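Researcher: We plan to redesign the surface later, but first we want a full-length starting point. C-alpha cells attached.
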C-alpha cells in the first residue's frame, strides 16, 4: 500500500516534493498545510484532489509519514508531535539553527523509535555511491582532502526569493542551505569533521545572512576540507564539490554532475539525465520507503544532520 503522507510547508521544497510524490507509486499525499494562502493555493493547483487542511495538526492526523518542509524553527514541534503519534518523519535540512534544541530533538526522535530521516539530496544519489565505492576499492589512491566552491550572483537565488526567510541570518543563508549538503557528503567519505578555522562575512545590516565564508575543516586523520563560498558579481551559479585522491579526483557539480580527473581535465562519468532533480528525488523517495519500513537505507539520519548542523553553526560564528 502507498504511504499516506502529510506535507507541512508548501513553499519551494514542499511543492517540489508534492509533485514528485504524486509521480511515485509508493506515496499518496493525504493532506497538506502552509500558513501562507498564496503557497497553499499554488499547491492546490498542483494537486486539486489533496486536502489543504486548516491547521498543521489537521493535516498530520492519520498520516503514516509527515514531511516537514517548513523553516527550521517551527520544525521541531511538528516532528515531535508526529513522533508522539507514531508517525515516520522526513525533515528538510538544516535540522535546526540552535544546536542545543536540535540535540533534544534528535534524542527524542531516537527514543521514540519512529523512522526518521533528513533530506540531504545527495544521500541516495549515484555520485555519492560511486565516489564511496571508488574510495573503498582504492581507485582514487590515497585520500588527499575535499574542496568546496560555491559562488552566486545573489542570495537567495531568483527561484528562491518567495522563501524570504532564506535571506536572514536567523535561519537562512547559503551555508545552511547549500554547504550543509556538501558537509554531509564529506563526512560520508572522510568521517567526522571538526572546524579548524572559519571566517564568515556579513553585510552591514545585522539581520541579513552571510555573503561569504572561508573555512578549513579536518577529519580525525588531519585530511582537510577547504571551503570558499561567496555572493556577488555577474556570474552563473557555481556549486562544486571535489574529493581529491592521489590517483584520481572526483568532482560533483550542481549536486549530481559527476566527473573524474587522473591529472588532466575532468571528464564526465556518465551523460547527465534530462532532469537530474527528478532522478535525485526519485532515488530519495525510493530510500525513504525503506526507511519508513524499518529497512536499511542511505538517507541521512537525524544524528548525521545534527553533526552537520554543529559544523555549520560553528562556522557561521567564526573561529580563528
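Model: Full-length starting sequence:
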Amino acid at each position: 500500500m502507498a504511504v499516506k503522507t502529510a506535507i507541512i510547508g508548501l513553499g519551494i521544497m514542499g511543492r517540489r516534493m508534492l509533485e514528485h510524490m504524486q509521480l511515485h507509486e509508493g506515496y499518496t499525499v493525504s493532506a497538506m498545510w502552509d500558513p501562507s494562502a498564496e503557497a497553499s493555493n499554488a499547491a492546490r493547483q498542483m494537486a486539486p484532489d489533496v486536502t489543504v487542511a486548516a491547521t498543521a495538526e489537521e493535516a498530520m492526523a492519520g498520516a503514516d509519514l509527515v514531511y516537514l518542509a517548513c523553516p527550521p524553527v517551527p520544525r521541531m514541534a511538528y516532528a515531535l508531535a508526529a513522533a508522539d503519534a507514531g508517525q515516520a518523519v522526513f525533515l528538510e535540512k538544516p535540522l535546526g539553527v540552535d544546536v542545543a534544541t536540535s540535540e533534544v530533538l534528535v534524542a527524542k526522535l531516537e527514543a521514540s523509535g519512529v523512522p526518521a530521516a533528513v533530506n540531504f539530496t545527495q544521500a541516495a544519489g549515484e555520485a555519492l555511491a560511486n565516489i564511496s565505492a571508488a574510495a573503498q576499492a582504492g581507485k582514487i589512491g590515497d585520500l588527499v582532502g575535499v574542496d568546496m566552491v560555491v559562488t552566486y550572483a545573489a542570495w537567495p537565488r531568483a527561484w528562491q526569493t518567495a522563501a524570504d526567510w532564506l535571506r536572514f541570518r536567523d535561519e537562512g543563508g547559503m551555508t545552511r542551505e547549500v554547504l550543509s549538503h556538501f558537509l554531509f557528503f564529506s563526512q560520508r567519505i572522510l568521517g567526522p569533521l571538526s572546524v579548524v578555522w572559519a571566517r564568515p562575512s556579513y553585510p552591514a545590516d545585522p539581520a541579513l545572512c552571510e555573503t561569504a565564508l572561508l573555512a578549513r575543516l579536518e577529519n580525525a586523520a588531519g585530511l582537510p576540507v577547504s571551503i570558499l563560498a561567496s555572493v556577488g558579481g555577474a556570474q552563473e551559479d557555481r556549486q562544486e564539490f571535489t574529493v581529491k585522491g592521489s590517483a584520481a579526483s572526483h568532482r560533483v557539480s550542481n549536486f549530481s554532475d559527476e566527473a573524474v580527473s587522473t591529472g588532466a581535465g575532468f571528464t564526465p562519468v556518465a551523460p547527465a539525465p534530462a532532469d537530474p532533480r527528478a532522478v535525485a528525488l526519485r532515488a530519495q523517495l525510493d530510500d525513504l520507503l525503506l526507511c519508513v519500513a524499518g529497512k536499511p537505507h542511505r538517507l541521512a539520519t537525524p544524528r548525521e544532520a545534527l553533526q552537520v548542523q554543529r559544523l555549520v553553526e560553528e562556522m557561521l560564528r567564526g573561529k580563528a
